[in-house]
Amino acid sequence: MKKKIGAIGLFITLCALLGGCGGFAEPLAYLPVPWAGQEAEADAWLLLGPGPDEGSLAGAEWGIFESMRQPGHQAAPDENPQPITVYVPVRTEIFSQASEEAQTGETLAGGTFIKVTGNGPLWFACEGRWLYGQDLFPVEDGRPTETSLTATLIEGRFAALEEKLPEGSYWNHMGQELPEGVETPFSVTKTPCEHSTYGQAYCNFYSGSMLGLFSQYGHLCQCLGFASLLSDRLFGEAAPLYLLPHGIRPQAGDHLRLLEYEHSLIVREADENGLRLAEANPEYEDCLISWQRTFTWEEWEALYGWDVECTVTRYPFYQEEGRWVALEAIPAYTPEPGVSGAESP
Ligand SMILES: [Zn+2]
Q1: Residue 63's closest CA among 235, 179, 185, 193?
Q2: Please, is 272 exposed, middle or buried when counting C-beta atoms within 10 Å of its C-beta (0-12, 13-18, 19+)?
Q3: CA 215 to chain centre
Q4: Which of 67, 120, 118 is nearest to 230 (CA)?
Q5: What distance in angstroms lies between residue 196's CA and the mean position of ligand 1's atoms?
Q6: Secondary structure (3-state) at 171
């Protein structure tokens, strides 16, 4: 497997070196988004970019600068003041701010029903204090659900993202000429971007928060850009990044970065059998979107043994012997002036 991937990588590199960028097909007449034919639908605002006075960057006409309003974007706390009734099954820590560092030393008794506010997905407010969403279980018809409030929200955001970035389509802007690094995070086409012919000319770019960890690339595209996009839309771009300690099992939304495979995967689901993963560019050639790859836990452990460079998580805690252990956030990234674009696989 490793040899095969290495050979493909070498082949692509050779093609990229020899191929150049000649021979483009005519630009497609349609907008490179799956909902382009439905401009009267609710997504019509996607097609509205900044007005002529607000920006002249290529791509504005496709509304790509509206991307922060896409599914999974973390709304401001006051956008959802509606209280949510939740059940707190076990004694739970109380925080003075929405941060793992803001422990008050106080706890809330287990077996309690309370009302919280906020969009989470990680932190929820209650009377000026904060609770961690993995400790809270939404109440439906008077009964607590078995899925935490955080996991419920993450699942809903994944479903919205899966609809916008569908299985079997290509995460690219094929047919539209754009300068290197212009972000088109929700552009999807039915046409492969053929890296062996065009390099990354038609691949989508999205840097987002993961750029802080992979700043050597300048901009993020292909599997890494896609992983950054999903992570930011699930948790909010402002959510801190943490590295999960080696051997701790990942959860939905975590980002597995593979070193030898030079690939990124987002955990779509984790259950007792293993992982289902979301990714772009599994074949290293065309930015295909896939939500179907699975690993058993045995396969994950084997992969972990030799190729998981790191697991990037937005969850501030991991569980050890039934207790939450706080992680240390990676310091926020400030781009150095003058960093220019480079390829990211
Ligand atoms: Zn591509």
Answers
A1: 185
A2: exposed
A3: 17
A4: 67
A5: 10
A6: coil
How confident is the chain (345 residues) per 10-residue block, as mean pLDDT?
44 36 28 30 29 34 36 46 88 93 91 89 92 94 92 94 94 90 91 94 94 92 96 92 94 94 95 96 94 94 86 96 92 67 49
Domain range 79-157, CATH class? mainly beta
CA distances from 278 to 73, 186, 340 (A): 18, 15, 28
Query: Ligand 1 center to residue 306 CA distance, Å?
Result: 27
Contact 291, 168 (CB under 8 A): no
Where exactly are the structural domains of the chain? 2-69+165-326, 79-157
- pTM for the structure as a whole: 0.77
> Separation of 280 CA from ligand 1 center, angstroms?
9
Cα-to-centroid distance, 287 and ligand 1 (Å): 4
DSSP conformational letter for 47: G
